[in-house]
Amino acid sequence: MKKPVQQSIPFEEYPPEANAANQPTRVVEVVVQKSFVGKSQGVFKKLVHQIDGKKQVLRQWQEYKVRHRQRVIDEIIPLQQEIHSARREMILFIHDILRPEGRKPPGLRLGKVQQRKLVNVLLNLVNGLLDEAPEDQELESIHDEYSSMSREEVQALEQDQDRLVLEELFGVDLSDYDGEGDIMQFAHQKAHQKQQADEEKRVARQRQRKGAESAKKKSGEDSPLSKKEQEAREASLSVKEVYRKLASSLHPDREKDPVERVRKTEIMQKVNQAYADNDLLTLLNLQLEIEQIDPDHILMLPEERLKNYIRVLRSQLKELEQEIESELLAFMDTGPHYGSITQELVEREFNAEIKYLREVAAQIQKDLEDFNDPGIFRRWLNQFPTNGDFFGSHF
């Protein structure tokens, strides 16, 4: 199912859904309906709208991934199993033809060249199935009967070749790979570890350099925070301030009414999660929901507070884009994508894959029936080169 894909994937934009009349007002509804005159207000408005749209995109892909996974279980896997069983039957059929005492189609006679070609075809089929089901002892025994190298030796050779290629590609040493798990994943992990180690060294050198520069200063006072660090600190404090106001109003232990206590507990869980995610927009929405603030409060924010909010929202928007990209990675092998990945495109590729697998399963079953005719079997065998390379065939 692996197919070439484009590395860069632009994201789709979805307009915010209309809010039901019985739902609380959201920040996005407050800001998109207003015309702002200040630059910061305009940036705030744009970010709120973008974040709301990205959240909906993320939710749509998360929900679609669940449905897609279920379709794979219900439709793709059974077809793959059917094809696996049919190919296995084909292997046993060919094995019988090659064995002196095996069953053969009546009247079938093969010359030495045809027999060598058939052995190559058999080994290609066996290796393919053993890659899928390495514990199949019967197929491994058939492989070793016809191959000059045992299956274990073939795997070791292929593993060494893969290791050399990946070492060159990722610039890492894979000599400690023990054969367990996927070597590509192991190489990715090693490359990530190397990248982290290099980054830690870079940070350590930077700290050492800053420490040396600081030591040269005559003043014994602590160095002031950089502008970027100060802005990040103020942005964090802004989120914390909103959280504290919400927590103060919603503390369940202070509520005597059992029904209201349950309601506040549920809202407080949302508050805690939003604070943990640094999700300022949700925190502001919750303030509106419990009427801790009104829409005018958001529209009349002081300039410095608005700038702090903007920094938080920009960070949140970037994190949402990364989350969406992570969700899209699950669909990168569904087809060649030369633009945005859409659910419609994934569905189209998925349906094409199902159609292809059905055709393969049906063709193998037809071949198994037709091969009882010696003439048809010889014509089928003649289509392959002597080395047994049959790329492009339904096998």
What does this structure look like?
- The chain is 69% helix and 0% strand.
- The protein has 395 residues and is mainly α.
- The longest helix is centred in the N-terminal third of the chain and has 60 residues, at 39-98.
- Residues 1-22 have low confidence and may be disordered.
Brief overview, please?
With 395 residues, the chain is mainly alpha-helical. Helices cover 69% and strands 0% of the residues. It has helices spanning 27-32, 39-98, 112-132, 137-146, 151-170, 183-216, 227-250, 258-276, 280-289, 295-299, 303-329, 343-370, 374-382.
Write the topology of this structure.
Layout: H1 27-32, H2 39-98, H3 112-132, H4 137-146, H5 151-170, H6 183-216, H7 227-250, H8 258-276, H9 280-289, H10 295-299, H11 303-329, H12 343-370, H13 374-382
Search tags:
395 residues, mainly alpha, 13 helices, elongated, disordered N terminus
Strand content: under 5%
Q: What are the secondary-structure elements, in order, as H or E?
A: HHHHHHHHHHHHH
Structural class by secondary-structure content: mainly alpha
Question: Which runs of at least 5 residues are low in confidence (pLDDT < 50)?
Answer: 1-22
What is the number of helices? 13
* Strand tally: 0
Give the termini distance in whole angstroms. 14 Å
Mean pLDDT: 80
Overall geometric form = elongated
Backbone CA Rg: 32 Å
Biggest beta sheet summary: none
Helical proportion?
55-70%
